[in-house]
TrEMBL record:
This is TRAP-type C4-dicarboxylate transport system, small permease component. The chain crosses the membrane at residues 55-77, 89-110, 130-148. It comes from Desulfacinum infernum DSM 9756. GO terms for cellular component: plasma membrane. Its main location: membrane. The keyword Transmembrane helix applies. It is found in: Cell inner membrane. Residues 25-156 form the Tripartite ATP-independent periplasmic transporters DctQ component domain.
Length: 164
């Protein structure tokens, strides 16, 4: 795989994953509605898949928003501060993001370990429950990485403005 493809995958992983998840969710919902309309029966498992995919979608979407700087967060305050204070806000906001999502990932990993030890299965499809729970630590780590990237980017922009 060449460098350009790897770069595109790194920069658009969340969007690609979200698009795929939305496609799968839409197809499953469409199939369920069609079957229910034609036969008066429904696929009970579709709700399990769609709810679990929604958790992945939410966390991956959050990571994409962090990467693009689309979270409002402290932006309202940030743009009104002088450059030295902006750096303090950048560091504090990054520390908060890392704490919150680090904690979420930490406890998500414990939950996965418990689900593996107890061999917990999902209700409808009876797949290992940890596959669904994996969204929490995976998404949390992805959000933390994207938050660090965005903070570094904003810090560099402040450096460039300071040199002018």
């Amino acid at each position: 795989m060449n460098r350009r493809v790897f770069s595109w995958l790194w920069n658009h992983f969340e969007e690609a994953a979200c698009a795929l998840l939305l496609l799968v969710m839409a197809l499953i919902a469409f199939a369920n509605v069609t079957i229910r309309y034609l036969t008066n029966y429904s696929f009970a498992f579709t709700e399990e898949v769609e709810v679990s995919a929604l958790v992945y979608l939410t966390l991956f979407g959050g990571a994409a928003a962090f990467r693009r700087g689309l979270h409002l967060g402290l932006h309202f305050v940030y743009v009104r501060l002088p450059p030295p204070a902006r750096r303090v806000v950048l560091v504090l906001s990054l520390a908060l993001v890392l704490f919150v999502f680090g904690t979420l990932a930490y406890y998500g990993i414990f939950q996965i370990r418990d689900e593996m030890d107890l061999e917990t299965l999902s209700e409808a499809l009876e797949v290992p429950q940890w596959i669904y729970t994996l969204a929490v630590p995976l998404g949390s780590v992805l959000i933390a990485v994207r938050a660090v990237e965005r903070t570094v980017q904003l810090w560099a922009q402040q450096e460039m403005k300071g040199k002018r």
